[in-house]
Each structure stands twice: as C-alpha cells, then as structure tokens.
C-alpha cells in the first residue's frame, strides 16, 4: 500500500528530526529524503508554500549523499533543519 502524502510528510519530518537530534545520519537516509521529496513535489495535494522548502531539503539530501563528512554536513544544517520542519508543520 503506497504512503499518503500525509504519511510521506510525517516520514520526511521524522528523518529530519532524527538528523537534528542525533547530529548524524546515513547516506540511505539522505536517499530516502530525496525519494520522498521527489514524490511530494509532484503531488497536487501539497501546499505550494511547502515546495520551496522541499527543494531546500532535496538540495540538503543531495549534498549529504555525496559529502565525505555527512555528520559535519548535518551539524552545519541544524538551523535549516529546524526551520524546514517548523515550516512544514505550518502548512501540513
């Protein structure tokens, strides 16, 4: 059974929250973020105000997949992650 867009948003926020709390993550999580964002970007039920945030999360996940120092990448984006999740909570 495919995930609804609400479930996808919840999963996206959960992964980002884990990155924020743990200050670490995996390449697989970055790949999952990318897949979730791609799916949400084409979903007509997603509020237009979330799409720029999703683009930022997509860039974050892309950079995370290819960095040599993923934990540093996550740590340096702590403020962004917090802002993204807060904004997603407003529109979701």
TrEMBL record:
InterPro entries documented for this protein: YtzH (IPR025547)
Superkingdom assignment: Bacteria
Pfam families: YtzH (PF14165)
Protein's recorded name: YtzH-like family protein
């Amino acid at each position: 059974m495919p995930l609804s867009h609400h479930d996808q948003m919840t999963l996206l926020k959960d992964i980002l929250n884990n990155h924020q709390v743990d200050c670490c993550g995996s390449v697989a999580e970055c790949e999952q973020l990318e897949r979730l964002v791609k799916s949400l970007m084409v979903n007509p039920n997603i509020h237009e105000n979330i799409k720029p945030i999703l683009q930022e999360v997509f860039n974050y996940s892309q950079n995370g997949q290819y960095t040599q120092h993923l934990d540093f990448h996550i740590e340096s984006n702590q403020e962004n992650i917090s802002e993204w999740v807060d904004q997603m909570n407003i529109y979701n």
